Amino acid sequence: MSVVGIDLGFQSCYVAVARAGGIETVANEYSDRSTPSCIAFGPKNRSIGAAAKSQVISNAKNTVQGFKRFHGRAFSDPFVQAEKDNLAYELVQLPTGSAGIKVMYMEEERNFTIEQVTGMLLTKLKETAENALKKPVVDCVVSVPCFYTDAERRSVMDATQIAGLNCLRLINETTSVALAYGIYKQDLPALEEKPRNVVFVDMGHSSYQVSVCAFNKGKLKVLATAFDTTLGGRKFDEMLVNYFCEEFGKKYKLDIKSKIRPLLRLFQECEKLKKLMSANASDLPMNIECFMNDIDVSGTMNRGKFLEMCDGLLARVEPPLRSVLEQAKLKKEDIYAVEIVGGTTRIPAVKERISKFFGKEVSTTLNADEAVARGCALQCAILSPAFKVREFSITDLVPYPISLRWNSPAEEGLSNCEVFPKNHAAPFSKVLSFFRREPFTLEAYYTSPKELPYPDPAIAQFLVQKVMPQTDGSSSKVKVKVRVNIHGIFSVSSASLVEVHKSDENEEPMETDQHAKEEEKMQVDQEEQQKNEEQQQAQADSKAESEEMETSQAGSKDKKMDQPPQAKKAKVKTSTVDLPIENQLLWQIGKDMLNLFIENEGKMIMQDKLEKERNDAKNAVEEYVYDMRDKLCGLYEKFVSEDDRNSFTLKLEDTENWLYEDGEDQPKQVYIDKLTELQSLGQPIQARFQESEERPKAFEDLGKQIQQYMKVIHAFKAKDEQYDHLDAADMVKVEKSVSEAMEWMNNKLNLQNKRSLTLDPVIKTKDIQAKTKELTGICNPIVTKPKPKAEIPKEEQNPAEQNGPVEGQGDANTGSQPAEQGTNTTAPTATEKKLPEMDID
Ligand code: ATP
Ligand code: MG
């Protein structure tokens, strides 16, 4: 199981993983921890991340960026419509009505859904994680803005599936940051103490989010969130772009906005300028060569002027800060720290506005770029059974109040009920009871469309099926469980029908009477949190709340729930039957469609892989040409005849030309064949060079070995005490082998010395090595035979014992027993003078 966290940013993404050493933000193939949220479509493949970013201008129409906020939106959505005209690529209405992108891919016009596009980006991020972890990645946690509605969240969930990921949690970006902050804090107040309130501010490229969280030991509770969904770095870039469009327009008579390429370049340059201004208050130049119509443009800007231009944007910093305090009923003094993250908080004026509001310095203890991803990885580690992480519970909230609406025959019209008020703890489940005779529909919607940064308050419709009256014709009690799940998505998660079985005639008639009165009504029975949130204090609070809701919803008509059900139902047996629910979710991709997208993503991954292999094969040919051409006039010069060199050089030049002409775009096999053909010419030269590099050492080793044995023979003949235990017949064998090896070596050396280097050598290194092995195989067992008495010889003839391992000895055979086997383990040192014949080339 993999532990991976993904910050899916508007401009760039980060991937963090959990390893034995802790949480680590990992780098992509460009050694960059940030991966641009960018996909470029080409005639043969897709490029994702940094490779796509470099095509923003050159392949403008087919390079997609800035799509994060199109998730779960209709093409007709005012936000989509407003963005549409500023994009270099084309946005289209898909048959489902949702927004899609239209690009040329594989030389065909193709429409992709936003889920597919994000799926592609996730494919890349998954690969980055896999490269870092060196194993397949499936499980992960992905971040989304805290203000995302259900449709947006579901859309991102679909994208994760398209990329073959199993998203264990969609976590709110600010909550992820809070987790990254809190889990390492050792000094949080104890559970019974007043919590520590910390404000988290994230201003990225597209949006601005603020949350206030209460921390106690081992837990965090999000108290409130507020946001400005369109305030981010790009708004500041736009200010500069608009300024220079006007300035350059007047100065150089250019209509910059009429052409996408110069406009995109200006955006890039303005972003750079904006960043420079964060560090520098002086005048800064804005120069772009060959900007438009071959004109070079230049201008200046400074921080003071920039801030003046951005006054309206900066004024939008404060309201969300004020809002979170109001919602959480906290005063500025109650705030322990204000932690800021997100690239745009690097603008000094943004920082100042925040610190001025709170009357305290902001903290930048968290990594502004990586905190979200790190928090995601931490959440994934908490959810993963494979990882041991400090206990830390997270209670998030419901950002917008959620209501249910249903047709109520008893009340002759629509009834509704707010099931989750704003800032209600999440994830959370509640059980509602309805008294019905037939299937019915529950319509979920956001109660306050005005505060919703989304045009449609509808969430979904849930048809509770197979509802039947009781056997006596009265209404059945239908228990419906509604839930805001771990991803922050609302659903009717289950429904069951309570069947009443009467056991005898004297049964209490109350129940059915009661039902008759209650008919077609609804009551909130209870609230419950799911398993992993159960420990939390919040649950107890909410349960108390739920009792109140029950009476307020059901009035005084039904008090049964206040007492144990058994007390009243002594003569009535009940059983429950699960009911199927049919969902109609806003902008939800159908299962078949999703499967098709998953399949298509697989095909595109395969296509990218094939294209990469083809390119690698082509690059290999190119590399070989350059490398060989260099070496033929350098390292390999001596090893090839002039004629061969000339013809080979010619061949290499032809290949180089071919690569730029006919060979520019060939199937992989053509490049492989081309390389093989060149290698067949180059390989013998390369081998001769290699041999000549290795041969002297091989001869030297053999020479040393011969020399060592000769020394032993000599000592044996001189009746040296050290060798007097050796067998004379054996020593004759040694002498014979040594002289035969010496003759062999001298012969080969002489032949080789006479041979031209441009021809294959008379003897291969491996044969010399084999000869050495053969010699030691015969001689070593004889000369290293241990002396019968275990007596430690004192003579200097055994330096191995005195000096430790000698040159060439693999391991420390320094004990009193000589080594049993091995080539260089004989007693004599290897530093004797060389044999006179050893003239090594
Ligand atoms: P979002 O959070 O909206 O999805 P994101 O996560 O991709 O977007 P970040 O990476 O947090 O955004 O921030 C990117 C923004 O921060 C860009 O607008 C970038 O220009 C801006 N930024 C980065 N560094 C600086 C700086 N030194 N000064 C000013 N702005 C900066
Ligand atoms: Mg961000």
From TrEMBL:
InterPro entries, A to Z: ATPase_NBD, Heat_shock_70_CS, HSP70_C_sf, HSP70_peptide-bd_sf, Hsp_70_fam, HSPA4_NBD
Cellular location(s): Cytoplasm
Alphabetical list of CDD domains matching this protein: ASKHA_NBD_HSP70_HSPA4 (cd11737)
Matches recorded under Pfam families: HSP70 (PF00012)
Gene Ontology biological process terms from the UniProt entry: chaperone-mediated protein complex assembly; protein import into mitochondrial matrix
Domain of life assignment: Eukaryota
Region (Disordered): 503-575, 779-841
GO cellular component: cytosol; extracellular exosome; nucleus
GO molecular function per UniProt: ATP binding; ATP-dependent protein folding chaperone
Start-end of Basic and acidic residues biased regions: 512-534, 788-797, 831-841
Ranges of biased composition (kind: Polar residues): 811-829
This protein's record includes keyword ATP-binding: yes
Keywords: Acetylation, ATP-binding, Cytoplasm, Methylation, Nucleotide-binding, Phosphoprotein, Stress response
Family, as annotated: Belongs to the heat shock protein 70 family.
Assembly with partners or alone: Interacts with TJP1/ZO-1.
Protein name: Heat shock 70 kDa protein 4
